[in-house]
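User: Here's a chain of 508 residues. Predict its fold as tokens.
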Amino acid sequence: MHMAPTMSDIQSFRQAVESFISARGWTPTRFGRIVAGDPLFVFDLRDGREPRSETRTRILKAMTELGDTDRQAPLRVGVAGLGNVGATLVRILQKDGAELTRKLGRQLEVVAVAARSRSRDRGIDISGLEWFDDPVALAKWDGIDLFVELIGGEDGPAFASVKAALEIGRPVVTANKALLAKHGVTLARLAEESGAQLGFEAAVAGGIPVIKTLREGLGTARIAKVFGIMNGTCNYILTRMGNEGISFADCLKDAQALGYAEADPTFDVEGFDTAHKLSILATLCFGYEIAPDKMRVEGISNITQHDIQVAAELGYKIKLLGIAERTEIGIEQRVHPTFVPKGSAIAGVDGVMNAVALETDHVHELLLAGPGAGGPPTASSVLSDILDIARGTRVPPLGVPSDELLPYREAPHRAHEGGYYIRLSAKDVPGALAAIATRMGEKSISIDSVIQRSDLSAKAIAPDGSPARTVVMITQQTLESSVREALAQIADDGFIVGEPQLIRIEKL
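Assistant: Prediction complete.
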């Protein structure tokens, strides 16, 4: 006579199945297919199905036979640097550990940290974790399987700890663009020699998966150009200047108060942060060695409301862009404020958002946009690298083996198709404009338009007491060097007051 199962039998069986799934990070479908012979078995069990005694016995026996043979040991993670990003990462791994295990099929466990202060309140519980004062010691410790560097800085403990981990074959994840811009080729070579993985998704554009797209997502597509907004601080400032009519200085103060800008904002607002990121992208796109020192870099500190207003009236917005382009004779890299058409996709990326555009022979133009900085977006990108490493994903850190990277070859300056915006304070005296136009003509610079702006009254007064007025000129396609030479000659002639403003106009 067949006896009906008791509630305790069924409940015990269900708990055994769920424990098995959780411990191994299996999906219900995988368990059903491998152990029960029915992909929907677990779902039906959760819906109230009561398997027969023979079925339960068979499944329990299969679970026992499997034992620990399919169980992967936890991936033990050590985190160096517990600032905003580091603390957020630890919080995510602690809070969402069970869910990550189910998705990954392997447990992720933060077991050790390194930071400057043990007593600082970071909003996370680190009492049960191993503490290291020295990140290099953490990187070498046998108790971790993966080292995460979130210290920052191009040298010092950041470089020393990453180097130490890679030398012993330990995988590394970092968000440090300065480190990669300076030592990226060296670290990639170390990773390849030791067989370690090196992930740096968070180093460029925060929460945007641009590194993964370049290394894995485009197949054989040949990239001709990469450009974008890569610094949230600058984009925030320019957005507010455009929307609210306030000065650069006032926007910067607000950005500092909100935590978008550092106390010393030079690295951001003068374009160096963007240059580091662009150099990494250029290497992944074009296969040349990283060369942040081989590009013209100009920041936004000289942008005024005059420039913002005129740009708007002409149908443009001003954005700080990093642009790298493949030419027949080398790579052109540059960072500078840029007039972009209001109707372009990049013009609509405002606030602290970032965007990276790729022009390829297969997908033409691809735009990736999203939050470029901050704890959650950056930590999310760090976590993405950790998950890839846990899955065993292996790709050359810089897209191709480091020995195959080409020596950087800088392309000579070319005529810029979009022309230039020039703003200057010209002496309000007879013949001044004619003299300025003559100097432009001597350098073969064609002027599209000249606008005298009485509403943008220049406060500058020449040493001889002459008043000055704002003059805006838009050039046709020409060489930047020619424009700068002409402006230098005009200044020597004594017809302008102060430094002229020169901004590229991009046809996007």
